[in-house]
Amino acid sequence: MVLSLNYRRPANVSRDSINTEKSGHTDTSGGAESQSSGSSCPYGIPDALSFDRIISGGTCPPVTTREFMDFLVYIEHDAENLQFYLWYRDYIKRWSELPEREQALAPVWTSEQAQQARNEALTEKSKKLNNPAAEQVFKGTGFDSQPKKNPGAPNPFNTPPRTPSNEYRDSMSPSTVGWSEDGSTVGSGLVHHQKTTANAFEKVGAHQPFTIQPYREEISRIISIYLAEGSVRYLNLSDKERAALLKALSITTHPSAFKDVVATIEYTLRHQAHPNFIRWTICNGNPPRQTFARGLGIGGIIAGIVYGIVITLSGANRGWRTLAFLAFFIGISTLFAAWKGMCVVLHGMHHRHLRPWELFASDDSTSEYDLKKNSFDSLGSTNSYEDEPWVAKYDHRNVFRKIFDREVWIQEPALRSIQDTIFIQALITAFIIGAILTAIFLAVPAGHKF
Q1: Can you give the chain as a three-state secondary structure string?
Q2: Per the record, where are the segments of Polar residues compositional bias (predicted)?
Q3: What is the pTM of this model?
């Protein structure tokens, strides 16, 4: 089994490319179409480690939703996509449990309305690009859309200064946005989330929504956290997608309003974040251990070469040259496995190193790591972790302790199977290359130099 997990793609994908990979299955609650990957996962990932199984809780550590979220927070720095996706799944479930009379207050957002909103967003963007105020500023310069053709034209690089308007100064004023931990304010408490949401609607030319629709307050908070400009969990969406979504949310709180945006986010999770997570999980050792293993592998290969040269030049019996194969075999297999991120010693016990953020979690259920739910809190604050205590503690650990960090057993059978396959590949590669190098030394005539 060969894993092809090197695929990476931009977070912003075209709508056409997404639609071509959809299964055409529409949620009964009017939500986004599910992008099922079929009976087999792409990029050589087994079905037992598929995206759907991880999200549904059908896998064991270290391939659970908890580890997936940790990977996106600490490694990829892109956790907002999964946080928003998990919130949306829960939102659809809660919406389906509402009485019909409450659901009727928020109409379904149709495909025709979505297309019209996208067209309006393109129109608004075109108007901004053809702003008369901007043309007035650049009039008479080299950036003028209709430059003067007389020789007395001013220097195109000498643009006149201008005084920013009040609106421009307000937009440049420092502010922080995002829902705080106590759920009362946005950011540091200076700007309320409702004001942030109102500004977001105003920027796209949408009207203020009705407040009697179900979950309107929650939608307002979601906008201030994920969609408003400068929000703490700002989703990587195109301007057209963001404007179209805000226009939809100004009219309805129905889950169908998120259909296009969720399709983009789910595509990114399935085809970028998920393969990268599986590839990262295959590595059973931390970076210092991997570097140490590579050093051992290179050392074994060099030792085999030096031994073969010395024995060949010494004129000793040819049989002694075959011992170089052991050094080649151990060195090449160790180096090959380390290149894949694996340590053969840890793999022999089916162990892995604890991640730095896991190292300082005590056995007590009230430990900071076990109680840390900010990353799974859809209405939480920023995903920044630089101020977490484990960062400074791990930085102060010496290299020797990092190489021999605490280990834990790998519980997921499918992951162990993948690692077994890589280990066998390492042994086969080492046997072939080691046999070739040993045969070369056997073919060289004795030197009788000493």
Answers
A1: CCCCCCCCCCCCCCHHHHHCCCCCEECCCCCCEECCCCCCCHHHCCHHHCHHHHHCCCCCCCCCHHHHHHHHHHHHCCCHHHHHHHHHHHHHHHHHCCCHHHHCCCCCCCHHHHHHHHHHHHHHHHHHHCCHHHHHHCCCCCCCCCCCCCCCCCCCCCCCCCCCCHHHHHHHCCCCCCECCCCCCECCCCECHHHHHHHHHHHCCCCCCCCCCCCHHHHHHHHHHHHCCCCCCCCCCCHHHHHHHHHHHCCCCCHHHHHHHHHHHHHHHHHHHHHHHHHHHHCCCCHHHHHHHHHHHHHHHHHHHHHHHHHHHHCCCHHHHHHHHHHHHHHHHHHHHHHCCCCHHHHHCCEEECCHHHHCCCCCCCCHHHHCCCCCCCCCCCCCCCCCHHHHHHHCCCHHHHHCCCEEECCCHHHHHHHHHHHHHHHHHHHHHHHHHHHHHHHCCCCCCC
A2: 172-187
A3: 0.76
